[in-house]
Amino acid sequence: MSANINCDCGACGFEIASREPCLSLLCGCVDCRQALEWCAKKGAVRPVSLPELIYVKSDIIAVNGIQFIRAFQLRPEARSTRLYCKKCFSIIGVDHKSYKNNVFMFFKNHCSTTCDLSLNPSAAIYLKDLEETDEINKLKSIPLIYTFSEAEFRLFRSIEAVSKSFSDTNRPRSGQNLKSVIQSLGEIEILN
Ligand SMILES: [Zn+2]
Ligand SMILES: [Zn+2]
After folding, report:
1. Percentage of the chain surpassing pLDDT 90?
2. Does 111 score more than 90 pLDDT?
3. 136 lies in some domain
4. 67 C-alpha to ligand 2 centroid (Å)
5. Ligand 1 centre and the CA of 26: distance in Å?
6. Reported pTM
7. Residue 75 domain boundaries
8. For residue 32, how far is its CA from the centre of ligand 2 (angstroms)?
């Protein structure tokens, strides 16, 4: 069954082929925080300290309101490209080189979606960047990744949902991937 990921004002969004996410992670990294705070300054929802990242198959059947979608990167040569609505500044999709066009990510509670959001986070990542360290004590039963040291990286990749998500696509797609949507948008805005 397909699902929608829309910005909060409804001007733009995607229809994706499957409503079942592949993976959920909690992320404490500086980049997620900077990106969400930039959007919040322009009127979008304020981020929590450990935002939840939802990964879905990068299989986009339809793009709605493409004239309202813009792409930004935090700095030149950034590995992440984030797509937002230029009216309400919701982030509707994020591409990262490590996603290999198999999946893309969106932030739970920073857009509106009909995806099934019942999946529990598989890990919490980049905890060394987290300022509110008491948040970590609330996370008891999932792998905690602080720095992606060699051992932590091995632990992370041993999570089945992680290794399946961040791998080359080997299944037929019904639509286009997020990267091809980004390419159709024209120039990427560089914030810093
Ligand atoms: Zn919007
Ligand atoms: Zn992050």
Report:
1. 89
2. yes
3. no
4. 27
5. 24
6. 0.96
7. 3-23+30-119+171-190
8. 4
